[in-house]
Amino acid sequence: MNGTQGLVFANPVPEIKRLAREMDMEGKVCVLSFGVGSQMADVNQAIEDCMQAGHWLLLQNYHLAEEPNTSFFYLLKHIIYSRWSDDGNNQEQTEDTGRSLVTRSCYSSHSRPAVKLSNSFRLWITTKADGNRIMPGLLVQHGLRVTCELTVNFPSLLGKAYKSSAFLMSAKAASGEQLIQRFNRVIPLALIHAILVQQSYYGRHGFVNNHFWTIADVASAVEIFQSLSVWTNDMEAVPKLITNVYSDHCLDLRDTQIVESVVKNLLGVKHSAEGNHGAAMLLNKLSNNIKETNDLQKTLDSIDNNSAQTYCLPEENEEMHIALKSKIFFKEMVQVTGAPELLLSYATSANLLNGVSKDVLDSLQAHLEACPMLPDISVDQIMPMDEFFAQEIKMYKNLINTIKNDMQTLAKAVVGKITLTPDMVNILDAISADQVPAAWLKNTFVTCKSLDAWLAMLPDKSMYVLQCYNRCPDVLSLNMLMRPDRVFHVVTQSYASKHFKDLTDVSLELQVMPYDFKTEAKPSVGLYVNGLVLKNAFWDKRTCVLSEATSCEGGVHQFPVVWLKPISTVSRETAANKDLYMCPIYSSSDPEYIKDSLLLFCIPLPTKTSPLLCAQRRVSLALVQHVL
């Protein structure tokens, strides 16, 4: 961790000290952090001292602890079992009702440490939910409170980024007016770094890949900003150059667009109502607050909202991040408690298969038996659209045959007739986790996580493409195709072939139809398509533009029919529209599959707000995961 980053997790010390003041224990709180080698003896001694003195002890970062020794667990047992009354221990317990039988397994008195436990003693332990070391089972079973807390460290992170940027700029303020001038000069660069680093804490729910921005990136951004501000007043090139500093870490186009939108939104904002959106909204709030307080720390403390929207993330990302961490924490609790009913509950809630049996393979085989018999059709067709559907039928037929052969092989392996090759073992592992094997996705895109749901749609999809070959529907469902990305190119090829034009002279214009649009026939030119959903935004029915998302389950909204209209490039009027957002289309709405390799196409959509805000909110289109 470097000087530009704050604590990755919420610091519990202020909250515990506040509670200590309320309980008349101020000055009696001891804090000890794990992470130093050969410190278990110091930890044990600190526990014994606080037990005798009646102080509170906070042990932080247990996931960084070395291998605990037996004396550490003896102390934990002593703390827990010493709270029982002698009368309660002498009571006979012969049934499973009442108090847990686990708590009755108190060890013999001769093994207890000769340390008296004060009534005012309290022990607090914090750990990372997905760390290398799980919480001791005794504490999970008998702890007063076991929770998974959110990260609330953004003000600390921004403060460190601001101080680093100000130091690199060698900016020293003597008066209140100079403080405000320095703040307005430094805070945009500090916010860029803080927002990007904070979003990277969310892992796959923030960026496609993990990025490690450090103080070196801050130094490069400061150098670019100072060098250009000295020699020229034209600062339009600054956002582009600073974007390159941070986007050079990105290997995915989506991550690059997010970085670019944050940088341009912060460095291009004018302190007015027009810039009051996205990251610029937070910048304006901080700039106004520093004028009132003339104090940096009070300005940072004014960031009272610690939700993901504060640093330009959709609410869905925060909810899914919390669910992921809570699932990890719940699994650790199951491991340390050893309760079989909790393990069964966890497996059921996650929809995971503990193993592959013959019954599981038979249930998957039933989906394949429902698939129609696809004919052998030549892919050498005259019209590009006919050739496209012929290729779809051929790919579906090959996919079904491949799956059937693999399932037959696995069925033999389950009963012990054959051994599996490494490739078949990978397929077996994917089926065990209810995931679509990568070997079955070589010629198509993944559309959903669940293998059962994916195979359940296969009969309908294969029948649909066969019907499309016989007669192209008025509205083509993109989610029913193996290669929906080819549709956009086939439309232009069909237009060029019909009108005897060069393919380079034809471009594609996309027009979103009204929600109540009823198709009575095919369009005069081009194709109607549907089967799309809109993520992290809402399509305004009245104005037909993108607007901020309203409350909706999963943050997903049905998108209307789109007209793919090919036109001649020569006759097309090219007018730059700054309010158009190039919205990407992905094969799935699941955040795990939002990446370049699953990008189908990008379509321009009008928006009420700035396209930069849409990029920050991760607005995108995806294929519907069910049959329309």
UniProtKB/TrEMBL annotation:
InterPro entries: DHC, Dynein_C, Dynein_C_barrel, Dynein_heavy_D6_P-loop, P-loop_NTPase. GO terms for biological process: microtubule-based movement. Residues 353-622 form the Dynein heavy chain C-terminal domain. GO terms for cellular component: dynein complex. One of its GO terms (molecular function) is minus-end-directed microtubule motor activity. Residues 10-147 form the Dynein heavy chain region D6 P-loop domain. PANTHER family: DYNEIN HEAVY CHAIN, DYNEIN HEAVY CHAIN, CYTOPLASMIC. This is Dynein heavy chain region D6 P-loop domain-containing protein. The lineage of its organism: Eukaryota, Metazoa, Spiralia, Lophotrochozoa, Mollusca. The gene is 106064175.
